[in-house]
Amino acid sequence: DAPLLQADNIRTGFATARGQLRAVDGVSITVAAGETLGIVGESGSGKSVLGRTIMGLLEKGPAIDITGTVTFAGRDLASMKKSEMKHFWGPEVAMVFQDPMTSLNPFKRIGTHITESLRFHLGMKKDAARDRAAELLSMVGIPEAKRRLDQFPHELSGGMRQRVVIAMALACEPKLLIADEPTTALDVTVQKQILDLLASLNDSLNMAVILISHDLGVVSGRSDRVAVMYAGSVMETAATEEIFSRPRHPYTEALMAAIPRLEHPTHTVLQTIPGGLPDMTKPMVGCRFAARCKYAQEKCLTDDPELASGATGDRTSGAHEFACHFPVDTPEGMAALVANEE
Ligand code: SF4
Ligand code: MG
């Protein structure tokens, strides 16, 4: 079966005064129908730009250079006209951002946000759309849904607003939901509720989800597969259980070490790995993680490791792939570690 989403060799560059910043530098991902893919990385790793590129939200032009292909349900996104994109956003793919106010108009009632989409995409009549909007609000766990329809965004808490945004995203029953740091602005208890909500919707609607987070703990229990991004590139990808039980990339290993052990890992600060991202306006020579890697050897400074599965070279979508010359938990990795400790 062809995957629902297939993004091949995506490169997204932004023109800056210092040259082109390669925010996404050759990323390929696939998402099957109903699957949840977690994309994890520090701020600046390119995960949000990747999400927006896949959505077709970034417009190619003098300031933005985009190459690579995105195929969704067998259709090439680049070939879609603007008028077609209007029917792509909503019924096919929807997106939830970190700040619910990005998607809400402060002067518009909650109900109107949802009914507009129902009427535009599904041609629903006013009353039917209103009933459906109330249904959607209940579905995302908003009590007294009917009464909420007439309220304005500022009358709701941050968590409730994010639920409204999710209800809006679900209005047209998209095949794929891209959630970019959907809970980062919320407190820990509400975070968990919203993440559980997304997971249950993924189950009950068989809707594929791309869950983007800086927090490995957030995606851990809620993704089928995880892709770890660093400096615009995927460092490692595997089934969630596999990546957690046997990380192969030193960056993934470092991220895991940053997860608090004793409590539920909902609040991980990835910035505990010393050092910062490389200058992404300069050509990348060697491994982009080398400056922060405790396994780095000379080879790492000259050869950019390719994303591949270590043992067999098998490149099916379920494979465990990593981009490293001295992977963790291998004789080469051990030898590199010993060499560096001497
Ligand atoms: Fe570290 Fe080298 Fe692997 Fe890069 S290729 S992650 S520098 S060991
Ligand atoms: Mg982001």
TrEMBL record:
<dbReference type="InterPro" id="IPR050388">
    <property type="entry name" value="ABC_Ni/Peptide_Import"/>
</dbReference>
<keyword id="KW-0547">Nucleotide-binding</keyword>
<feature type="domain" description="ABC transporter">
    <location>
        <begin position="5"/>
        <end position="256"/>
    </location>
</feature>
<dbReference type="InterPro" id="IPR003439">
    <property type="entry name" value="ABC_transporter-like_ATP-bd"/>
</dbReference>
<keyword id="KW-0813">Transport</keyword>
<dbReference type="InterPro" id="IPR017871">
    <property type="entry name" value="ABC_transporter-like_CS"/>
</dbReference>
<dbReference type="GO" id="GO:0005524">
    <property type="term" value="F:ATP binding"/>
</dbReference>
<dbReference type="GO" id="GO:0016887">
    <property type="term" value="F:ATP hydrolysis activity"/>
</dbReference>
<dbReference type="Pfam" id="PF08352">
    <property type="entry name" value="oligo_HPY"/>
</dbReference>
<dbReference type="GO" id="GO:0015833">
    <property type="term" value="P:peptide transport"/>
</dbReference>
<keyword id="KW-0472">Membrane</keyword>
<keyword id="KW-0067">ATP-binding</keyword>
<dbReference type="InterPro" id="IPR027417">
    <property type="entry name" value="P-loop_NTPase"/>
</dbReference>
<dbReference type="GO" id="GO:0005886">
    <property type="term" value="C:plasma membrane"/>
</dbReference>
<dbReference type="InterPro" id="IPR003593">
    <property type="entry name" value="AAA+_ATPase"/>
</dbReference>
<protein>
    <submittedName>
        <fullName>ABC transporter ATP-binding protein</fullName>
    </submittedName>
</protein>
<dbReference type="Pfam" id="PF00005">
    <property type="entry name" value="ABC_tran"/>
</dbReference>
<keyword id="KW-1003">Cell membrane</keyword>
<comment type="similarity">
    <text>Belongs to the ABC transporter superfamily.</text>
</comment>
<dbReference type="InterPro" id="IPR013563">
    <property type="entry name" value="Oligopep_ABC_C"/>
</dbReference>
